[in-house]
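Sample A.
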Amino acid sequence: MRRFAILVVLVAVAPLVLRYPELETQILTFGLLAVAFNLLLGEMGFLSFGQATFNGVGAYIAARALLDAHAPLPIALLGALLAGGAAAALVGALAITGRGVYGVMLTFAFNEMAYFIAFQWRSVTGGDDGLRGIPRPDVFGISLDDATRYYYFTALVVLLAFAAVLRIVDSPFGAVLRAIRENEGRARAIGFRVRRFKIAAFALSGALSGLAGGLYAELFHFVPLQAIDLDTSTNIVIAALLGGIGSPYGALLGAAIFTVLSNSLSHVWAHWPLIFGLVFCAVVLFFRTGLWGITERWSRRAAHA
């Protein structure tokens, strides 16, 4: 509870201190993607390279709802959440049939298929030109055209989703996911329906990813094809590993660092991924628990000092 309260304060004061609401909104949406991915790898132990699939599906559904049906923003985001969850349940039901690396490769394959469909289906997705001109309607009479107001709207949605994830992780459902991660055979032997739990975890992860996609579509009034490509899935994996797998806070921290570094370094040097690659290698080699693990160790030492 204390950590969540600190997170709320940091999110609330961020635009007042840094004054880059678009970047801060991007951190929140990407952070939600990393938190969703952590449900699969950190809690259930399943490595997925398909999170961009659900992100893109959510972004396109929300965008089409706003463009074609002129739906209210909450309804468009609800559609993104449900579409992301449905897509993830389908992908998960098929991916979990593969053992080990084969399951991972299935998520990779589905991501590539989704990218190809989005690339070809120009009438719906805009193809490689992206989907432009997405409106940002008022919510309860409050205009969100201002970047700071949209940041606070996004912050409210993301914090509510994050609080839900914390409850899920600490619930019996979360305990079963961790049991599956540690010993799937034993979890099945004591009576848990492992397949159902895995599909449910995929659906939850996909729903959060779809919600993040819907929020991102509204950020720049634009859905790029990159929202559904493999690079985005890879970046999500990197951000979660950088922050620390096994903690929603770690995933959020890694996403924030990844977003800030990628945005700042790209303006300085065209080959910025080399620098980020070195940072990532250092974390993986010397700090196996990620950056969040380092902060936890420091806090424990300070408490015992």
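Sample B.
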Amino acid sequence: MASARDIKQRIKGVKSTGKITRAMEMISAVKMRKAVQSVLAIRPYAQGAIALLRRIGESIDDGAHPLLSDRPIRNELYVVIASNRGLCGAFNAQIGKRLRQTLKEDAGRGQRFVTIGKKGDAAVKRLQGDIIASFPDVLSTPTVELMRPIGQVVMEEFIAGRADRVVMVYTDYVSMLSQEVKVRAILPVAVKDTEKAMHEMGGRVSRKASVSGAEYIIEPSPSEALERIVPRLIEMELYHAVLESNASQEAARMMAMRNATDAAKEMSADLTLAYNQLRQQKITQEIAELSAGMAAVSQ
């Protein structure tokens, strides 16, 4: 049986751990709010890009741009977005689980990977996947500029024919208590798929721009305009997915740290009760021994 001194030391250690987890919870809450604000901030740009892409797409034939060409799927490239650190509950485990399920469904095709985040890299290596590029440093302060090298990799793989479809596996932020792992194709670019993605993130893209009678002059030409718009759209989708993943990660970490703090409080209470019981038992024993000694002397 543990001594009173050992229990007291454990109480001190548990309380110290609780303070740390409480501080981590507060830090994650601040980071989560910033990530959510960043997601909301890029939605107007995403909506405008989709509306413009649709309008230009009406002026050209299908397959006029290599990133729009739809072909039989023999090889797939997966962009796996996870976190760099742990202590975020089942966040990374859920991504690994969904990835294994997706790879099983797509068995028989060539499968290669681009990873964003150290935990995603580790998950793919456990599956013995072929990683062609890893970007662990873009998660701390994601920007559109940092997405460009990733976008260049996936677009080059698609245009070269080494990938017939590019798929993102990431976690979508729904609320503080709910995050959902999603698998979404980003190449080849399809307007309907992009509209579906916007609908999932709460955007509403008006069709007035495409059905209105207004005439647009596209210079220098629709095809050259696509050359600039499509890569930016891919970068925007990657940027949005990273922001969603960061918000989900911090929400999961915040809840994990809150649960750890609550567990530390409960453990501290249980240890304090055990300490008081042991101390009371010792006091009772000392009183009994003193009473027995006094009785022996009085005789």
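B remarks: Strands lie at 75-81, 110-116, 130-134, 165-175, 178-187. The CA atoms of residues 100 and 127 lie 8 Å apart.
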